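Researcher: We're teaching a course module on how sequence relates to structure. For the next exercise, students receive a sequence and then see the predicted structure as tokens, so they can try to spot secondary structure elements on their own. Here is the exercise chain.
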Amino acid sequence: MTTFADGDDRETIHATAVAISGAGLLIRGKSGSGKSDLALRLIDRGAILVSDDQVEISRKDQHLVLGPPPRLAGKLEVRSLGICAFDHLSAVQLKLIIDLKEQPERFPLDRQMMNLLGIQVPSCTLNAMESSAAIKAELALQRIMQGAKES
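Model: And here is the predicted structure for the students to work with:
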């Protein structure tokens, strides 16, 4: 993590990010776990690419903001096709972290949260290779956004 003169904390992590209706989803997982593939399926359903492979995360007050490193802006690796160009967004507020695993828990016992740059962020665990992974990601985000409106 680096603290800049403007007081913002920033770091670049190995992940992929998309925005759904302006809300940022950060997709984390091991290499080959399906981060880019899940992002591609979400884009097909209306999401917009933020960044693939590396994501810059900045702390702005009590929020985290996602963006692409300049050299990766608008680029998504599509396995078997190579690097493809997509519309992209920057400065998207992070709302959900998705961790990819082959065997996620069937019934998580409590609301999952992750600490990133000192801020608690809702999270969930999905298997990116399940055909329903994109829908599950959207449902998880929907629940978080509904909870935010009720608070």
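Model: If you want an answer key for the exercise: The chain has two helices and twelve strands. The chain has one domain: 2-150.
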